[in-house]
Amino acid sequence: MTTTTGPTTVTGSVGTAHTRVDGLDKVTGAARYAGEIPFTDLAHGWLVLSTIARGRVRSVDAEPVLAMPGVLTVLHHGNAPRVDIDYEGMLGRPDPLIGVFQHDQVPFSGWPVALVVAETSEQAREAAEALVVHYDQEPHDIEFSHGRPGAYTPDTDGMRVEKGDLEAELAASAHVVDAEYTTPEEHHSPMEPHAATARWEGGRLDLVDSNQGSTWIAGELAKVFSLDPASVRVRSEHVGGAFGSKGLRVHQVCAAMAATVLDRPVRVVLTRRQMFSLVGYRSPTTQRVRLGAEPDGRLRAFDHQGQSLTSTIYEFVEASAGFGRPMYAADAHRSVNRVVRLDVPTPTYMRAPGEAPGSFALESALDELAEKCGMDPIALRARNEPAVGPVSGLPFSSRNLTACFDEGARRFGWAGRDPRPRTRREGRWLIGTGTAAATFPVLVGPATAAVTAEADGTFAVRITAADVGTGARTALTLIAADALEVAPDRVKVHIADSDFGPAMIAGGSMGTRSWGWAVTGAARELREKLVPGGDIPAEGITARFDTGALLGTLSQKERHSYGAQFAEVAVDVATGEVRVRRMLGIFAAGRIINPLTARSQLVGGMTWGLSMALHEEAVRDRASGAPVGPDLAGYHVAAHADVPHIEADWVDDPDPEDPVGIKGIGEIGIVGAAAAIANAVWHATGVRHRNLPIRPDRVIEDGRLDGAVSEAGGSGA
Ligand code: MOS
């Protein structure tokens, strides 16, 4: 740690463990989240969601509800202000869901049909639950299965990649794996539900929100309400988790609508149950993987076909088939994503979109291939290390996957592992170990930052970054401190205010890299402006930096982070319960800014992977089209008792092109983790689990569980 007093010139904060600069505020409750910031004259909106999965709203019986205590208004398609959703936003055209109350159509169960606004949250809820809505119901279709009619490959970038003669290479292969894998519908489940308060303040729409990018939300809201972007201000000081779900959602639009209609501040908070249909989720996937290899494991044929679902109103594709494109060399490479439109809510980006489910299928298939080739799974991956991008032919900026496996194998104790399954038993537990590779793209987005030298000798950084719980505010403090060559306690970082100007969102694992670049640039410009020993005026001296033009000069390369995941599991032969005993992840993910929070983030991602492997599964009722048990009781996320000792660490891997060496660590922690666990379950039991989650009923249903361990194998305790 750097000293808190002492020399005016200090370097080396980046890379040292630093507790969160907002940690004390968070644990003492001083940090206010979007749903708890007080406003004078605040009104509360409560959403009413459709109970049918397809049809139209015939009528909304608002009158009786308007007579209830405290009720101020009921907004619905018959009276709501018109908004514009016919625009090109940052992520393309918006999901029509954003245009709430604009028509009477109901495209899925849980579609917003009304907003009840009242003096208190309790009155709004009471009235919302009493509101009677009449529907004309139509039959719905939510049936998702592999190769079902209607599945298509979108005509957009990256949906289909083909190189070489796949069928010929498969036919010529000594070993072939051809298997189908499935992953269920999964939800982001951030601890903090979505919440926004909107008001008109000095002629501007002012929104206090919980989001992944305040300039982004401000820009989209300006378009939705046809406002000058300068007359919208969005702030998002603290965020209790996002994972891809906290973009522009209906609650911000509803709050702004109601604030406009009532001309007073209006807050809309989503309930956990409402989040299951309003904030996106990860589509279920079915994936078919075909791998063909030489006897020595060298891949001749690589084929990954993924299918996901989307709503009838918006095309979002969970592109699971892209995972292997930069990963493994093969003579023929094919990867295709398909999607089918059903009467379900629109899925969205969720931590490691594509890579999370894609790595489960492909890294399981590689384990199956290793078994067929009689090879160690790590050796199989090493055999297929590409010299250049297997599909693109582009050079890698850096590629340290092998270093991750070397370090991981050493620390996990992989050497001497009996490759045969079902060779270890301890009482009623079958024990196994598994591994899998991880990768995630390294990207960067434009950002602007301002750094001010204050008269009191401190420095203020202003950037519209978002700290979604990752520790980004702290990371930026360390980055700024190093760029300014001062101790971090002389730097105050202000984030998440759209008035600070445009900046990349906290998404795509690009936040810290994108913001760090801008902050470093602004700090350097400031140092050039400062005269040694010169006076600083009361208003300070400010330098600004915009990375926009710089990013265009980056050469064409394959830029990725990598990781090696290891897991040890114990499987109860009587109950089918799988317990993960330990996990280790070693990552090559650029320069690590703050080891303390980076480790937490990676361990968090790996915990998600455990949760994905064993627990998470949203079930939709065929009859109603609605989710079953849409809460944290019905949808089990790994809890403390499910999570064993998890270790995450990294190898040296600074990005040569980034001014700080950053790659990004937001998403890679989950990638490959579920496959490592599934591979360990196979190693323990001899049974492949190709459908997630690996529930006890799926494990015992196999029937082969409670027998002796393999005859040639070792004995247990
Ligand atoms: Mo993340 S799924 O890129 O917000």
Quick description:
By secondary structure, this protein is α+β, with helices and mostly antiparallel strands. The protein contains 16 helices and 26 strands. It has a seven-stranded mixed beta sheet, sandwiched between helices.
Explain what you see.
This protein is of the alpha+beta class. Among the domains are: 3-31 and 445-553, Aldehyde oxidase/xanthine dehydrogenase, molybdopterin binding domain (Aldehyde Oxidoreductase, domain 4, 2-Layer Sandwich), CATH 3.30.365.10; 394-442 and 555-717, 2-Layer Sandwich (Aldehyde Oxidoreductase, domain 4), CATH 3.30.365.10. The protein has a 7-stranded mixed beta sheet, sandwiched between helices. Strand 22 (560-572) and strand 23 form a beta hairpin. It is globular. The two termini are 46 Å apart. The model is unreliable at 1-8 and 710-717 (pLDDT under 50). The structure holds dioxothiomolybdenum(VI) ion (MOS). Dioxothiomolybdenum(VI) ion binds next to loops.
Biggest sheet details: 7 strands, mixed
Number of DSSP E strands: 26
- Radius of gyration from the alpha-carbon trace, in angstroms: 26 Å
Strand neighbour order, sheet with most strands: 3-5-1-12-9-10-11
Q: Taking all residues together, what is the mean pLDDT? A: 95
Quickly count the helices: 16
Could you estimate the helical fraction of the residues in percent? 10-25%
Assembly type: single chain
Under the CATH scheme, the architecture of the domain at 394-442 and 555-717 is 2-Layer Sandwich
What is the CA–CA distance across the termini? 46 Å
Indicate the structural class.
Answer: alpha+beta
Please state the overall shape, judged from the principal axes of the Cα atoms.
globular
Would you tell me which CATH topology of the domain at 394-442 and 555-717 applies? Aldehyde Oxidoreductase, domain 4
- Small-molecule components bound: dioxothiomolybdenum(VI) ion
User: What do we call the CATH homologous superfamily of the domain at 394-442 and 555-717?
Assistant: Aldehyde oxidase/xanthine dehydrogenase, molybdopterin binding domain
Q: Kindly provide the name of the CATH class of the domain at 394-442 and 555-717.
A: Alpha Beta
Strand content: 15-25%
- Contiguous low-pLDDT stretches (5 residues minimum) are 1-8, 710-717
